[in-house]
Sequence to fold (1193 residues):
Amino acid sequence: MRYEAPESVTAAVALLAGEAGTARVLAGGTDLLVQLRAGFVEPDLIVDLKRIEALHEIVEEDGGYRIGAVVSGAELEEHAGVSAMWPGVVEAVNLIGSTQVQGRATMVGNLCNASPAADAVPAMVAASATVRISGPNGRRRDADVGDIATGPGKTSLENGEIVESVFLPAKPKHSGDAYLRFIPRTEMDIAVVGAGVSLTLDDDGICTDARVTLGAVAVKVLLVEEAAAALIGTKVDAAALEKLAAAASAAAKPIDDKRGTKEFRKKISGVMARRAAQIALKRAGG
Amino acid sequence: MLDKPNKPEKQKFNVVGTSPLRPDGVDKVTGRARFGADMVAPGMLVGKILRSPHAHARIRSIDVSKAEALSGVKAVVTKDDFNADAEDQDVLYNIMAREKALYDGHAVAAVAAISQSVARRALALIEVDYEVLPHVTDVDEAMKPDAPVLHDHIFTEGVEPKPTKPSNIAQRYEFGHGDVEEGFSEADVIVERNFKTAATHQGYIEPHACLANIANDGSGELWCCTQGHYMVRNTCASLLGIDVSRLRVTASEIGGGFGGKTTVFIEPVAAALSRKAGRPVKVVMSRNEVFRASGPTSSTSSRIKIGAKKDGTITAAESELNYQGGAFAGAPADLGAMCSFACYVLKNVRTIGYDVVTNRPKQAAYRAPGAPMAAFSVESVVEELAGKIGMDPIEFRIKNAAREGEKSSYGPKFRQVGLVETLEEAKAHPHYSAPLGPNQGRGVSCGFWFNFGGQTSTSLSINIDGTVALAVGTPDIGGSRASMCLMAAEELGIGYEQVRAIIADTSSLGYNDVTDGSRVTFASGKATIMAARDSIGKLCERAAKMWDISPDAVVWEEGHAKPAGANAGEFEPLSLAEIAASAESTGGPIAGHHEVNASGAGTSFATHIVDSEVDPETGRVQVTRYTVIQDAGKAVHPAYVEGQFQGGAAQGIGWAINEEYIYGEDGRLQNAGFLDYRIPVASDLPMIDTKIVEVPNLGHPYGVRGVGETSIVPPLAAIANSVSAAAGVRLTELPMSPPRVLKAIDENK
Amino acid sequence: MHQVHVSTKINGDEIEYLCETDETLLDVLRDKLGLTGAKEGCGSGDCGACSVMLDGRLVCSCLVLGAEAQDREVETIEGMADGENLHPLQSKFLEHAALQCGICTPGVLIATKALLEKNPDPTETEVRYWLAGNLCRCTGYDKIIRAVMDTAADMRGA
Ligand SMILES: Cc1cc2nc3c(=O)[nH]c(=O)nc-3n(C[C@H](O)[C@H](O)[C@H](O)COP(=O)(O)OP(=O)(O)OC[C@H]3O[C@@H](n4cnc5c(N)ncnc54)[C@H](O)[C@@H]3O)c2cc1C
Ligand code: FES
Ligand code: FES
Fold:
């Protein structure tokens, strides 16, 4: 196994594209090192992105924020601007692991690891986040966050492609977002169910737009249109929230595993979505 | 009754009962302390173990030739490298699979190589031809007549007539007295329920680790983290087929054990590799290996039936407890059955325990082995019964509580015990009457543990400057060196700081049993006191020599030799330091020692109070308040006694709520890591209040009782009782994980 | 296996080492440099026994490659005391009996030092959540939390 720490995206992409065997990108390493140690992956090349200065930046763009691929959870939390605009996303990222894990883990790594239970992903999808991808020969493209992971451990990234940054768009006024997950302990668990909600109200407090997402209840994050529809046109009152919960429970397609039963996960999907919506509502000023 | 002493020999203390800093403290806060994996030796190799991926499989053949041929590999061992006639055939089989692999994680071969990566590659080159067999991991399934049978030599012991067919039930135990049927017929109310508990792991943070250095003549040294290095020595010598005297074992600092380090796993393997390679070999388990292949607890199923009169008198009690103990016999079904009703004085009682083997790793001790599961089911029924009668649960317990002079449910009569005292303290504790919030419930439970004594050897040397070097042979797993120093200082009448204790290796001190059964502060403490007294006798002799009077005319007081009285003569008292300074001219080195098979370990009882909050929509349980009240006899070092109380309670909380071994259909362990084997993290727990009750143990000169184990006995039931109160429905299965609690709540609607 | 040459700073000292590319910083500290204060409880980021500071951030050294330490600054438990003077946290942990077996202690101390540098006046809840990645199986955390709160109060007073 070779270890390379290039200093530019171009160099990183070239290394990846030039590797005949298996190559892996290294961001915070909090997934990758665990997988290496367990023998799940045996790459021939590791490309560490952390020496690329540009990927450490958080910059304002079109009223939103562009967050570099190697910004750690701890760094994101310390950024007042992002935390104020997208508290749900920042909370979701900060839920990942411990303080120690936060010192390293990135939201892009969370996305590219493509675990169905990834915490940052439902929040990012609820926030309509996009990613910028760099590929060989200077190719660059943007994609919706929801289109990156395609199934457990699988992504739509092509050979040689890396994600450079996440873009969180400007937030319309009277909007709020939230992410909640269910875990048995208070910390250090992988989500049994995760729910992200982002919603916008008009001046009268009527919900005009909403996005509701669920994690850990399908092969990839679910964007639950029916749940969002339950909120739109309402004041997000108790009846609307119950409808949202029912829609979320109905949409969940979980499996039975060591972390929870199917039946349990379906129920909890509704509860988490409802509770997240209540927080988002409050943040939107409702 | 009156002329019977009810006080220990000594009641006024200078240093015992204070909480000074521990002698190993600075090393442990600076990173200097050396634990199992911290040792190196010149020329050291890395040892790694190949483990069965199957729950149950016949091993047709093992081909190690490719691994042996790999450059950098220095030795490969399989079952053939161990002494087939070893005394303990189960341990022999457990450390390295023989005809069959009996559980997921069972060792089948091992390599020693020049580096981690070479060792890893070598393991991948070993070819094992398995014939996969049907397996069983659940206790109730394993007991069924048509279950896959693990061993064809196990015919259930303890039943008449002796069975003719092999089975997974290794033994049936029965204890009790009186006429249970008669007793139930006198009851006004009877509660009978079935319970289940999952297997848990001790969860010590330090994985097993050892460094073996065996010379070509078969003699050598072993460094390892263990609760009993003499046990390691004797067992490894037997497994390797060498003389005990040829092996010197040193116990490293130990990063937690809780019973899980009372046997051997990797130590004999490292030794066999080292012998074969002719070089030192270090073996360190990964966390995955710790979960799959060390010694978790039994899982259990049980049925409890208790009857009582309206006035609260229990008329009869019956328990049937099935202990799944992994691939070999020896589950603590006997201890569980004995403990189940130990808190109560019962006219009619019968307890039955079954020791059952399954395709799981062989269970090992975990704090009060067998008792927590039994207490869980019994104390759940006790709480429910009190409720049915309409009696306060503490009053109900006091009415039936174990008391001095009464016959215990497991046979012997109780001596002076402190159960009622802990219950009275609990009743009066502000926690018991504090208001509860919404969705909260309160539960209490009692708990009992026998406590052990056992073989102990201690030696104490007086240094030239009057300080004292104390050597004990019981690994210090929670600050026991400090307690030993306190007791030695107390006897000698000197300051705590003047005594330093070490854990001596097996060649430097006589035999000591394993640190288990909460025996150390009791038994090593007792031996330390006796060793100190032995040395005092010698100090007095030396003083007598210096004064030229008879040794009988010298007494030891406040750290000084003094003339016994006016007749003895007028002499200035001689301090320990003064006598020590003249040792050379008065007869040479001064030392005391003591060897004993200590008896008289007093049983310890506890009562715990718990508040829990249940989220009715998710079934999630949060413990919000916790109080431990326990009888310590005499708390030698109160801060460490509190620590034992708190640690046991925290482990109990984990066991009750989230910890469990999860096996898949394929018989493989699915959660062999701390991410999914969920021990409590700091944010899961409240502060854990403690109250030390001191009802002296008359079997110890200071009244000491062991405290390390009882603390894990009450939590399971106390929490189950509080969760049941909060959820409005009785929970009978552990862990009370969210899916299970939510299901119970929903079904109760 | 490819060996990588790394120059780094550990507890203020310039250090160079060769490591295999799949070796973690924890492996390097323990096996190459003899700094065995950081412990391996899991090797997968779950227990925190291997906690060290990397360029001022608290991390699990088992989740950092040895090769990544090039030009970084690493602080370990061995660098916590100042000569013969213990750090206030170290003294308070002893005073409060905040350790039993002590295997978690180096990691907990490194983590709490990082906490108090960032937040000198944490609440009990903040301490508990900050330490959620440092497993302790012996103490039930009670005495650890008390020791941290007491040190924080003392250090604020000083
Ligand atoms: C103790 C512990 C607790 C955890 N708890 C949680 C939790 O609560 N919730 C949760 O969601 N996760 C959790 N995780 C998993 C992990 O921490 C997160 O998924 C984290 O966000 C991964 O980020 P990273 O930067 O460390 O990724 P890395 O490990 O560096 O990378 C992860 C994967 O993404 C790929 N990758 C990384 N960056 C890029 C890029 N820029 N372009 C293309 N591919 C890339 C890598 O090749 C790798 O396959 C936990 C992990 C640990 C060790
Ligand atoms: S060893 Fe690194 S977190 Fe456990
Ligand atoms: S003191 Fe033993 S794990 Fe913390």
Q: What stands out?
A: Residues 142-157 of chain C form the longest helix (16 residues). The beta strands of chain C are 3-10, 13-20, 51-54, 57-60, 73-75. Chain C has two domains: 3-79, 88-156. DSSP finds five helices and five strands in chain C.
